[in-house]
Structure formats: C-alpha cells, structure tokens
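Bench notes, bay 3.
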Amino acid sequence: MKQLGWSILILFTILACHRRTLKPMVCIPSDQADQELLKDPDPLPRFVCVIQASDTDKTLLDTLLYFNRTACFGFCPTFEFTIFSNGTVLYHGIQHVQPLGQHWFLISENEWDQLLKLARKTGFFDMENVYPVDKREFLVDLPNINLMIQSDGRKKFVLDNHSAPEKLKELEREVEETLKRLLTRTKN
C-alpha cells in the first residue's frame, strides 16, 4: 500500500510538471503565417556589459577577431587586439606604443556587427591568405598586419606585408581605429 501511495505521488508530480512546461498552441491565420516565419528572431545577447575576472579566462573563450601589427627593424608600433566571443577585448601593447602591457575592455555587439559587416562587404573571407601573393616579394623589414576573423563557422587569417588590395587596407584601418577608440574611451 505504501508503494502504491508513492507511485501515485510520483505520477502526479510528473504530470503536474509536464503540464506546466506545455505551452498553449496559438493558431496564426495562413496569410500571417508566412510573415511570422520570415521574421528574423531577436538574437540572444552574447556580449557581457561588465568585465568580471571570469570573463577574462582565455581558455574558456573563442576568438572572434585577432589584429596584430608586428615589429620591424626600426621603431614600428607593435601591438595586438583580440576580441573574444563574450565581447571582451584584450589589448597587448608590446613596444613603441602607449599604453604598454595588457588591458581589457569591452566592445558592444553593435560595434562588432559593424566590423563584421565591413569584413563581409570587402570580401575578406575570399581574399588571399598572404600579401604579396608572390613570396619572393616579401620584405622582412616591413611590419606585418595579421588579421583573423571568425564568423558563421568560417575562420580566415590574412597576413599583409605589403601590396594588399585597397579593400583589405580599408578593413585594417577601420578595425584598428575602432579598437583604439574603444581602448582610449576605456582609459578615460
């Protein structure tokens, strides 16, 4: 008898929980159904608004963008920016730049989307991997710009030594200016 009581209680609990999880079915007239299907769903927020220590654990984050200016045999500014999947950005000033060292800040989803839109517009994912294309023209004294962008399941890394197309140069300028502006805004 005791087992029967427990069985009924468990069955009642399962049914009660199941009933709460069911959503009522809403009928949409057929002329509106197509419009409902065509609407883009609101994206889930993926970027944090405030940096906490756990947001800077690079082993738990995926890289969305990496931008790096390399050294030369002179006094070239050397630094790198890394945008992570939670909207945190790590700046590392290496030499001949201010500030030096590592600094964390945030990029908004809107600012990220603008950079990604420009990358798509410039055809970044279809560009060559290395410029100049002919490796014999590579100049070792020039600073390189390394740019990696990951989006929509695609990842592209481009090394620009010189002679890159103007569209790539435009993208590099915009990425650098946007991230430097955000870094400066954070430091003020």
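Next record in the batch:
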Amino acid sequence: MYPVSFGIGCILIQKRFSYLYFYGVKEITILLLSPWKFAATFPLAILVFKMSWTDTIIFTNIGGIAGIIIFGLLSRLLIFLWDRYWPDTLKFNRGKRKIHTKRNRLIVRLKNQYGLSGIVVLSPVLLSIPVGSYLITKYYGRNMMNYFWQFLGQFAWSVIYIVFFVYFQNIL
C-alpha cells in the first residue's frame, strides 16, 4: 500500500521513505497567464511567486510560444470561417463609415508604418499575444517564418523583463 495525501499544490507519494513532490501551481499559473498578458507575468513570477530568473524565462516563454501557436491556429480558423460561411450581406460594407477607435488607429498605423517588425516588437508589450498572432495571421499568415519572428521578439522581451526585474528586485 502506498498512502497518497493531497496538499495545496503538492502531491506526496510515499514509497519506502522516498518522497516525490510535485509543485506545479506556480508554474501552471505562469504557463496559463503568459499567453494572455505576457508583460504582466514577470512581476507575478519574480516578485510574488519568488521564482528564479531561469524558471521565469523558461515558463513564460513556453506559455508564450504555446499561446502564439494556439492563437495563430485559432485565428486562421476564424478567418477561414468568416470568409467561407459569413453571408456577404452581413459583412462590413466599404461604403459605410467605419468607427475609428484609438486601438483601431494604433493597429492600422502599426501595420502601415512598421509592418511585421512593429507587430513582432510590440506584440508582447503593448498589444497582447492573441492580438499579435491574429494580426500576423491576417496580414502575413502564409509564411510560417513570421511566427518564428514573433517567437524571437517574445524571447527578447523576456530577457529585457528579466534584467529589469532582477535588477530592481536587488534594489528593493
């Protein structure tokens, strides 16, 4: 018989005085939050969860890459379904006046002035990973190398965030 006791975030399995601990609540939280708001997971991981900088880089980038893949595929599916099954009478008419919000103007300006590099650089910071993946899929979606550039932009921002938070953690 192997007694199993469950604790908060810890599964303890006893087998002849050997213990196997599974601490996964912090890591799963970072993995699930990093695709949605990449920039907000760094203070959570470093300052609240007290994770090391290597763990923070690993788990935020795994979550971010998973988010890029999932939201890229989901965006491709939504664009396909919109083009295929949405009636033409319900699609936006070019003759109607469009609503210009600050976010829409920012996205159009970003695409026109900076192109793919602007989306890649600002996706983890100002935009979010789902919005950046949708824009890359919508405007640059046929080339899979564009997602690789988004991975690299995300990794570069993770290194910048880690340097920033580790430096200020030592000051505080």
